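Tip: read the tokens left to right.
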């Protein structure tokens, strides 16, 4: 991209502008409240009183435009309200003073745009996005010069938030668009009383569509800058949810992807419809925003966006499909991230071309927002309360070393659950006294076949019983493994990463719902039990054989012991920050006979022997 001019309004006193025009009582001022918040501290606020214009100018730019070349003008705009009628907010001129384009907003809050040809005729079109929602919108105007004096292949296009709003092609503008010399922004004319508009982040480029400001991620791991939020363009509630992700999760505004063709249907008739309503526009938008695309690790399918589609009569999940975004759709394809030998945090590189993907949807906008709020409460905990319980229908997992490492109480799923932080398995019939209610994972068919009612197990758990996140299946049940799911959370991975390593297949029926950034702090304090063969010097201090919670005095764990072989076990305390003490104070010897009974052992030999002499005697210390 050739950046010709960039104005961020940070120079006080309009130092980056050549002229400031204010008439009557209308004003255009540099103000902190008018600044695009992710970039700078000063922006432009135009306030109209009566019909008097107010605007700024950039003069004598004298940008030469070659035949067949495109010039782009872009800026952030925010309307506080709708004007009463057509109001001009930007205009461009050539060296001769001829108008190249005029951009208006009308009484519906949408843009109307006009481009001029060599004969001085203006060709107009109307956009579709209502920008009067007091939110920032990235507006890009493209002017393409005809390739020859006898040709009519010039064009004009208008994009809002990265989506092409309207265009006019086959324009003979070869002479008029030979240069771009003056740029006006604010309200140059057709002013309407009471209209207020903010502008910031102005870019004029050649050759390539200009991206909005894109913040740089601070690490390779999942963070707000690596999440793209999908919302339905034109749907006020869907956009409101996307904005809530900006406010609450600090996801950059440039990462909000509008879907102009998405319907309000939760379930679509087939994959081709899902492509037309979601994937194609997402792909085009990412291509138009290559920096966001290069950063992106995760898709958050927002409120009101389609969440399912049918394929061969089976209801497939949008979150499962978008984990495989960019690859050819293949129902029930293997997930290469599933259940690795060692669970480690995921990065853009280790995703290997796959994506993290979750959805937040509900019966109301308020309930969708509440999921984010609850996830933030969970993430803010220094540790889960000691009374919280992980309910699981997998008995083998509950007694496993991986489960012990979480240092959380575990119980089988019962008719009624109390103090429930997690459910992993079949949904209970009754939810009693609540724990933190972090996540509910239901490994049965149709457990998440709709998120916009409380009929399905997952939506009922989230909407009615206030779980922060969860997963289930849109139709046929598949494999979700608890071991990698909880291990990813234990090592401070996010909910989206935990889902990614726990589901066996992509392009299938697994549904993940919740804040992708949610983390869970399992309690670290307690005791580790270690084992060695023979003496203390053979204890494997790197690999505990069991983990206890701080208040736990008895633990049952599986061991394979050889008869008449002497084993030694040691216990070390672990602090709340996860630091393990270094001593050998608590030790026991174990030996079994052929029947598995404990054999009597001789007294343990003293170790760590230390002798000190004084005038009054000899002191002997040992363990």
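Filled-in amino acids:
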């Amino acid at each position: 991209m050739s950046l010709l001019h960039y104005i961020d309004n940070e120079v006080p006193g309009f130092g980056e502008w050549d002229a400031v025009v204010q008439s009557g009582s209308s004003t255009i001022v540099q103000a902190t409240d008018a600044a695009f918040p992710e970039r700078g501290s000063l922006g432009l606020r135009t306030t109209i009183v009566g019909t008097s214009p107010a605007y700024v100018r950039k003069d004598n730019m004298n940008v030469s435009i070659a035949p067949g070349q495109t010039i782009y003008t872009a800026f952030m705009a925010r309307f506080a309200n709708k004007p009463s009628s057509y109001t001009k907010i930007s205009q461009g001129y050539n060296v001769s003073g001829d108008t190249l384009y005029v951009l208006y907003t009308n009484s519906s809050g949408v843009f109307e745009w006009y481009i001029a040809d060599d004969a001085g005729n203006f060709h107009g079109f109307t956009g579709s996005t209502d920008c009067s929602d007091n939110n920032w919108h990235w507006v890009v105007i493209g002017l393409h010069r005809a390739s020859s004096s006898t040709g009519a292949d010039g064009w004009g296009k208008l994009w809002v938030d990265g989506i092409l709003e309207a265009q006019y092609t086959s324009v003979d503008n070869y002479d008029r668009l030979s240069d771009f010399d003056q740029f006006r922004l604010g309200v140059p004319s057709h002013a309407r009383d009471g209209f207020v508009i903010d502008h910031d982040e102005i870019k004029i480029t050649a050759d390539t569509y200009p991206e909005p400001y894109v913040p740089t991620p601070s690490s390779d791991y999942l963070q707000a800058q690596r999440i793209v939020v999908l919302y339905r363009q034109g749907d006020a509630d869907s956009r409101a949810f996307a904005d809530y992700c900006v406010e609450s999760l600090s996801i950059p505004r440039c990462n909000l992807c509008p879907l102009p063709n998405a319907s309000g249907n939760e379930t679509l008739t087939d994959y081709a419809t899902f492509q037309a309503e979601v994937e194609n526009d997402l792909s085009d938008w990412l291509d138009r925003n290559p920096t966001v695309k290069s950063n992106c690790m995760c898709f958050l399918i927002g409120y009101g966006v389609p969440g399912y589609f049918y394929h061969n009569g089976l209801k497939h999940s949008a979150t499962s499909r978008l984990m495989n975004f960019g690859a050819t759709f293949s129902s029930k394809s293997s997930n290469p991230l599933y259940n690795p030998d060692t669970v480690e945090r995921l990065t853009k590189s280790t995703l290997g071309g796959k994506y993290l993907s979750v959805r937040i949807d509900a019966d109301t906008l308020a309930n969708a927002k509440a999921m984010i709020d609850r996830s933030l409460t969970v993430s803010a905990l220094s540790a889960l309360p000691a009374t919280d319980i992980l309910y699981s229908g997998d008995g083998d997992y509950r007694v496993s070393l991986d489960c012990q490492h979480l240092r959380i109480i575990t119980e089988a799923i019962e008719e009624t659950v109390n103090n429930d932080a997690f459910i992993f398995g079949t949904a209970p019939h009754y939810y009693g006294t609540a724990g933190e209610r972090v996540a509910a994972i239901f490994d049965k068919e149709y457990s998440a076949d709709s998120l916009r009612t409380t009929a399905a197990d997952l939506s009922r758990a989230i909407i009615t019983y206030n779980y922060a996140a969860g997963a289930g299946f849109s139709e046929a049940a598949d494999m979700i493994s608890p071991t990698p799911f909880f291990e990813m959370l234990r090592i401070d991975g996010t909910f989206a990463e935990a889902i990614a390593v726990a589901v066996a297949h992509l392009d299938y029926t697994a549904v993940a719902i919740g804040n992708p950034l949610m983390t869970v702090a399992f309690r670290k304090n307690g005791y580790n039990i270690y084992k060695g063969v023979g003496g203390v010097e053979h204890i494997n201090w790197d690999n505990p054989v069991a983990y206890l919670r701080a208040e736990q005095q008895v633990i049952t764990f599986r061991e394979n012991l050889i008869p008449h072989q002497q084993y030694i076990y040691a216990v070390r305390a672990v602090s709340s920050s996860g630091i393990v003490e270094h001593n050998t104070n608590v030790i026991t010897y174990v030996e079994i006979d052929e029947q598995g009974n404990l054999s009597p052992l001789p007294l343990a030999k003293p170790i760590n022997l230390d002798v000190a002499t004084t005038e009054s005697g000899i002191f002997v210390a040992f363990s």
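The chain has a mean pLDDT of 95. The two ends are 71 Å apart (CA to CA).
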